[in-house]
Amino acid sequence: MSSKAAIEQEASATYDRFVALRDRIDVGEAGWDQLADFFTEDAVYIDPAWGRQETREGIREFFVKSMAGLTGHGWSTPERWTMVDGHRLVSHWDQVLGEKEDGGQWVVPGLSILYYAGDGLFCYSHDYLNMTFIGETMKAMRWQPPAEFNMPPRKPDWRTHLPAAWAHLPDVFRDVA
Question: What is the DSSP letter of 92?
């Protein structure tokens, strides 16, 4: 078994590659579908608007559908900081919704909790955003969705448990120095 420090370094390096790809997506140099390649076949992704998404291919479909009409319209996701504890990684990022008339940005902060499964893959990601603040911000900026925008489902699946194969990860390093 790998040491806690080795797992943390690997998780952090994988997340750095994830963020680098997300940054390329934000500027139109890559597609959202590629981000799904950072997840295991049985992964779970929980979005604050769309709810629980399961399997790598389900996550891939979700990324493409949920980001239609947002990428290329001023939205981006710059990283603030990241912490790693064993297999768990917590990220603080901003959801930038566009530019204000005064040159500032419309920004809503967000958090993600990810579980690293090894081999450059995450098995779980749970994003947190204040959706009321998102709605208020969009109203204040008089945002109008472009034609390709897709609304989230009316009744998302809000179950938050890890995939069965990875349910042991929260306790893997409890007693390891």
Answer: E
Q: Which CATH class is domain 4-152?
A: alpha beta
Comparing C-alpha atoms, which of 4, 2, 20 is closest to residue 177? 4
Instruction: Report helix, strand or coil for 77.
Output: coil
Burial of 62 (0-12, 13-18, 19+ CB in 10 A): buried
Identify residue 107 by its one-letter amino acid code: V
Model pTM? 0.91
Burial of 153 (0-12, 13-18, 19+ CB in 10 A): exposed
* Boundaries of every domain in the chain: 4-152
Tens of pLDDT, residue by residue, the chain (177 residues)? 479 999 999 999 999 999 999 999 988 999 999 999 999 999 999 999 999 999 999 999 999 999 887 776 678 899 999 999 999 999 999 999 888 889 899 999 999 999 999 999 999 999 999 999 988 988 998 888 888 889 999 999 999 999 999 988 876 554 444
Rounded CA-CA distance 33/105 in Å is 26
How far is the C-alpha of 64 from the C-alpha of 70, rounded, in Å?
10
124 and 40 in contact (C-beta within 8 Å)? no
